[in-house]
Amino acid sequence: MNVDSGKMRGQRKIRAGRKTVRNTLYMAAVSAIRCNPDMARFYQRLKETGKPYKVAITAITRKLAILANSLIAQNRTWQPTPP
What we know:
The protein has helices at 19-35, 37-48, 53-74; strands at residues 4-5, 8-9. It is mainly alpha-helical. It has one domain. A two-stranded antiparallel sheet has the order 1-2. A hairpin with a 2-residue loop joins strand 1 (4-5) and strand 2. The longest helix is centred in the last third of the chain and has 22 residues, at 53-74. The model has no long low-confidence stretch (mean pLDDT 87).
């Protein structure tokens, strides 16, 4: 959701979608940053380029959602090394 009026550009917010899924993915992203080396490197790269915390965590959340969808579509479990 954007908060724009004329030339003023406000901060965007996420309100659409299923709240429980959004909250679960957020907590999974926080955990992935701490425990998954690949996600931690991706997060650090975003932070080093100057991205704010919420933008970086949203990128991790999106990456996790895409990973979950692809694992479900391929009917397989996650492994640290790709097949």
